[in-house]
């Protein structure tokens, strides 16, 4: 990998996104709007909003970053841009790292906006520091970015990208402990949930919700989510193709 090529790729992606206001709106506004909607859904039950809102603060950025990253990367390949870039002295690792850096910066902005609105505008009640909440939200957004880059290597169209949502995201939402405690699930489902990164993202949010300081469990959750993002990025670089068949 070459640092200058990686940064050049990231700058190119950011310049393209600057001319796509709809994508920026999707990234920054959709998680916030969903949190506001959830706030009014549970307007009469603040405790329910605090419990579910903290978990969804990690899930919403992951889902939106997954969609935007996978579709944007797929467009690069279907338009022939990716093939032209890889014909240059640009390695797959440089390309994936550049995309990860560009979308990672957007993920940081997205997580900051969503966390700020949840804590200071919607008055999400948490025992821990808002910075810990932001850290988990950021790691979740980065994980969504990594999953989007990985999925884009296997999709032949934007419609197929959307089809990966039920395959990769929905099962994690159902098994992450949002709807039922993971230890109350069937043993097989509990075992599956234990290897899904979203389960640790939700657990990390709940640790911040309940404890004033960072706990050992919180550290484990954060490391698992971050490690999953790195692993998926490596797999994305290994499976990256020049063109869509």
TrEMBL record:
PROSITE patterns: ABC_TM2. The keyword Acyltransferase does not apply. Residues 18-243 form the ABC transmembrane type-2 domain. It is a multi-pass membrane protein. It comes from the Bacteria. Coiled coil: none annotated. Its main location: membrane. Keywords: Antibiotic resistance, Cell membrane, Membrane, Transmembrane, Transmembrane helix, Transport. The chain crosses the membrane at residues 24-42, 54-74, 95-119, 131-154, 161-180, 218-240. It is found in: Cell membrane. Belongs to the ABC-2 integral membrane protein family. This is Transport permease protein. The lineage of its organism: Bacteria, Bacillati, Actinomycetota, Actinomycetes, Kitasatosporales.
């Amino acid at each position: 990998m070459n640092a200058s090529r990686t940064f050049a790729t990231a700058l190119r992606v950011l310049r393209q996104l600057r001319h796509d206001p709809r994508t920026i709106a999707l990234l920054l506004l959709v998680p916030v709007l969903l949190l506001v909607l959830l706030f009014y859904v549970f307007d009469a039950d603040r405790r329910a909003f605090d419990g579910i809102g903290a978990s969804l603060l990690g899930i919403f950025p992951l889902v939106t970053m997954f969609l935007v990253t996978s579709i944007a990367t797929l467009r690069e390949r279907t338009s022939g841009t990716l093939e032209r870039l890889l014909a240059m002295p640009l390695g797959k690792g440089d390309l994936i790292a550049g995309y990860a850096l560009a979308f990672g910066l957007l993920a940081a902005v997205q997580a900051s906006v969503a966390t700020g609105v949840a804590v200071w505008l919607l008055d999400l009640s948490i025992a821990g520091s808002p910075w810990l909440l932001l850290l988990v939200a950021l790691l979740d957004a980065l994980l969504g970015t990594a999953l989007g880059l990985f999925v884009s290597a296997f999709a032949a169209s934007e419609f197929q990208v959307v089809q990966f949502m039920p395959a990769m995201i929905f099962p994690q939402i159902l098994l992450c402990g949002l709807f039922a405690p993971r230890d109350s699930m069937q043993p097989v489902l509990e075992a599956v949930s234990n290897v899904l990164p979203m389960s640790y993202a939700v657990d990390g949010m709940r640790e911040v919700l309940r404890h004033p300081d960072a706990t050992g469990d919180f550290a484990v959750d954060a490391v698992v989510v971050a490690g999953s993002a790195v692993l998926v990025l490596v797999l994305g670089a290994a499976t990256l193709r020049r063109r869509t068949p």
